[in-house]
Specification:
Elements: H1 24-40, H2 45-49, E1 73-75, E2 81-83, E3 103-106, H3 112-121, E4 125-126, E5 135-138, H4 145-152, E6 156-159, H5 161-169, H6 183-188, H7 193-202, E7 211-214, H8 222-231, E8 235-236, E9 248-251, H9 257-265, E10 270-271, H10 274-282
Parallel strand pairs: 3-4, 3-5, 5-6, 7-8, 7-9, 9-10
Antiparallel strand pairs: 1-2
Helix pairs in contact: 3-5, 4-8
Amino acid sequence: MNFTPDSRPVRQRKKTVMTDMIAPDDSTELVDLFTSMKSSNKVPESVHETPLPVRVKAVRQPKKRTRTRSSDLEIDNSSVVQIAKEPSPQKITINSANDKQYRILFTGINNVEKYAKMIEMLNGVQVEDWKECTHLVTNGIKRTVKFLCCVSTGKYIMDVKWLENSKKAGSFIDEEKFCLKDSANEKKFNFNLKSILEKSRLSSPIFNGLSFYSTKSAFPKLQDLQAIVEGAGGKLLSKAPSKLLESTYIVSSTADQQECEKLKRLGYQMYSIEMILTGILTQQLDLDKFILNLENDD
C-alpha cells in the first residue's frame, strides 16, 4: 500500500488528558481536532504546521499547612472563604455630617428666597411642614406654630448665621456653634432654649395623655392651637365637655364669661392660654400660675 506524505496514518495513542492542565475551552478544541482526523483518516495540513500541544504530567505538590487567623478571613454568600485584603495604612475618616439629610424650615424670616438659594447650593431641602423638618431656622424666639412645635419635638433650632457660614464652608457645618440664642426672650419667659431642646429629645411630650378645650374667644385661633397642642402630644377637643373629665383642661378668656360659668359648674377650672404656650417653652405645666380670674370669681 502506497502512502503519500499527506495521507500517512497517524499512530493512535491512548489519550490521557490532565484536566488540571487544560482549560475547558482548550480541551474542547482539541477533542474536535482528533474527531475530524479519525473520521477522514487524514491529518489536516495545519497539524504539520502547528505541533500538537505537549502534555506535561502535573506533579501534585504537598499542601503546606499554614495557620491563618480567623480575623484575616471573609466569608461571602456562597460560603467560600477568601483572604481579606490588608487595610491601607492610611486612616480613612468619614465626615458624618455629609451623611445627614438637611430639611430646613423657616419661621419669622424675611427674604426667605435668599436663604432658600443657600440651601439648594448646599444640597439641602426646604420644607414647609414642621413634621418634615430636621432644622428650624430663625432669627429669634418667636411663639409661632412652627417654633413651638419644633421645641416640643426637640428639633434643631438654628440662627440664620448657620446657613451663612455653611455657605462659606461649602457644606452644612456643625450645629453646636450656631444654635439659636436669644437672651432677652429667654429671660422674659424664664427658660434656656438649648437645655429645653435637650430635655424634649429625651422626654415624652409634655402634653402626652392630656386633653384641652378652648372657648371661642381664646387666642390663638382653633386651627393653630390644635397644631400646637398635638405637636406637644396632647389632644384638642372640638366640643365643650358635658361632664368632668380626667386630665382635661379648659383654656379661655374673660370675653367668654358665660361659657366659662357653665364649665365651672361642671367642676372645671379656667386657665389662660399661657398655660399652653409658656408650658411648651419651659416644658412645665404650671397650673397655679396661669389660672384665669373671671369677674364673678371671689
